[in-house]
Amino acid sequence: MAGDYMEEKEAVFKKIGDDIKQRIVIEKMIPGDKLPSENELVKEFQVSRTTIQRALRYLEKQGIIRKEKGKGSFVNIQKVQVEIFNFSGFSDYISRMGKEIVNKIVAQEIYEDDGKQMMKLKRLRGMKDDAGIVWLTLDQSIIGLSLFPGLENYDFEKESLYDVFRRDYGVFPQYSHLKAKAVISDSCHSTYFDLQDTTALVKIEGTVFDAHDNVVEEVSIVYNPITDFNFLVSV
Q: I want to staple 89 with a disulfide (CB 3.0 to 4.6 A). Which of 146, 162, 184, 206 is the partner?
């Protein structure tokens, strides 16, 4: 019984913390914006000051807010700007920012589609700084192995997919047909991006081609809502 009570109390302050985090995203608050005072949050959520303080510490540990003694709590999270180029990979972009790239393979499989060998690669992609790892995207690539034999033998937690295309196969992604849509986060997104299950996310999906109009990959990318977007379109 005591354990259930403690779990319930912990769930309350985390739920409040997640609600505040959601507000920061929805209201497009920027670093330096001040949050409501502890007294205001106590009245809003109808809980004790201790619970509010735990919720704020929960957000502070994630780097989402900072507390200043005698002044209050302020938005601290830095939005990361991602440019979606017609033929540029994620690793290329993060490298240009001078950040350390971090990849985590979520799933990888080889399967046959209409007699063709295909590889499905699903990865979390992010960057690392002094505060830790920030996961920015959940990527899925579907690649025909006829163009890239042996691709399944590479370690794509360490290797850039596009670097391998160019360096070892002489294939240079040149342009893409992409479309964007809004999706609601599922349990996987919530776990990876530390979100509630009802968060609206941006999903980009489409096809990447080389200069000879060969399909390089079918791609699907879901973006963490802390990310800003610039779409650069060639005409």
A: 162
Query: Does residue 166 share a domain with residue 150?
Result: yes
What's the pLDDT tens digit per position in 21-39? 878 866 778 888 999 999 9
Which residue, of 31, 52, 75, is where some domain finishes?
A: 75
CB atoms within 10 A of CB 37: 12
Query: Which of residues 234 and 123 earns the better pLDDT score?
Result: 123
**Pair of tokens at residue 151:** 């691709």
Burial of 13 (0-12, 13-18, 19+ CB in 10 A): buried
Long-range contact list for 51-60, CB < 8 A, 24+ apart?
Answer: 51/9, 51/12, 51/13, 51/16, 52/13, 52/16, 54/13, 55/13, 55/14, 55/16, 55/17, 55/20, 56/17, 56/20, 58/13, 58/14, 58/17, 59/17, 59/20, 59/21
Give the C-alpha distances (Å, rounded to integers) separating 50 from 18, 41, 69, 89: 16, 11, 17, 46
Percent of the chain with pLDDT over 90: 38
- In this model, does residue 235 exceed pLDDT 70? no
How many folded domains does the chain comprise?
Answer: 2
Of 183, 211, 179, which Cα lies nearest the Cα of 199? 183
